[in-house]
Amino acid sequence: MSSLPRPVAEAVASAGRAPGRPAVPVGRIVATALQILDEGGADALSMRLLAQRLDSGTATLYRHFGNRAKMITKVVDHVFGEVELDAEMLAEMSWDQVCRSVAQRMFDVLSGHPKVASLLVEQMPMGPNAMMLRERCIAALLNSDFPPHLAARSYATLARYVLGFAIQLAGSTDQTDQASAPVLFQDLTPSQFPATLAVADTLPVLLKDEFTFGLELIISGLRQLRGDG
């Protein structure tokens, strides 16, 4: 049995152990996870690969998040944090301007992370950034005399509309399709496809243009439901 006092013995034993890996900031973990998602999608993101990128161990990641699902939830909310909207500016806007601004900004952000957008199909975003975005938009609708059920459905529809287009961007070939459109339509028989040939010069419509057009249709429909005429 050692004759050293217990505190001294513990200090000596601790000094003989190999130093552990340094702590990794949560922000760096989230940023690296987002980079992996952007590169290869959800299937590419594993705790093992993330730990390798961080030059750390999986145990460190689990201490921060508990499991992979919680880590992905954090990453998704980090993306929603990129949707920067000034609260005071929103307060001065009309409800339709708020809807347009929120939807457009969400689309712009998710366009930069199209492979992240598919994760939202499986889960409703409930992180603090997503919650605040929802809160501000619904508040604008309620303050403009939208009934609660219409305010809730309006935001849900806008959010799903944005998500649908953002997911399409993950596999978009807009530029290729636009360039090859004349070739695709030149062999059509005029007697069978007169309408298509009449608009062939404007096809296909770019996703971003489709998004803007559809958003205006939604807002126009909400005006009618609200009773604006």
Low-confidence spans: pLDDT under 50, at least 5 residues?
7-18
The top level CATH class name of the largest domain: Mainly Alpha
What's the story with the biggest beta sheet? none
Strand content: under 5%
Reading the helices and strands in chain order gives: HHHHHHHHHHHHH
Helix and strand content put the structural class at mainly alpha
Q: What's the total count of β strands? A: 0
Shape call = flat
Mean pLDDT: 84
Question: What is the annotated CATH architecture of the largest domain?
Answer: Orthogonal Bundle
Please give the alpha-carbon distance between the first and last residues.
Answer: 90 Å
Count of domains: 2
CATH homologous superfamily title of the largest domain: Tetracycline Repressor, domain 2
> Would you give the CATH topology of the largest domain?
Tetracycline Repressor, domain 2
Contiguous helical run count = 13
What does the radius of gyration come to? Answer: 25 Å
Helix share bin: 55-70%
Short description:
It is built from 13 helices and no strands. It is mainly α. It folds into 2 domains: 16-80, Arc Repressor Mutant, subunit A (Orthogonal Bundle); 87-226, Tetracycline Repressor, domain 2 (Orthogonal Bundle), CATH 1.10.357.10.
Topology (SSEs and partners):
Elements: H1 6-16, H2 26-40, H3 47-53, H4 58-65, H5 68-80, H6 87-91, H7 95-112, H8 114-117, H9 128-143, H10 148-169, H11 174-186, H12 194-198, H13 207-226
Helix pairs in contact: 2-5, 7-9, 7-10, 7-13, 9-10, 10-13
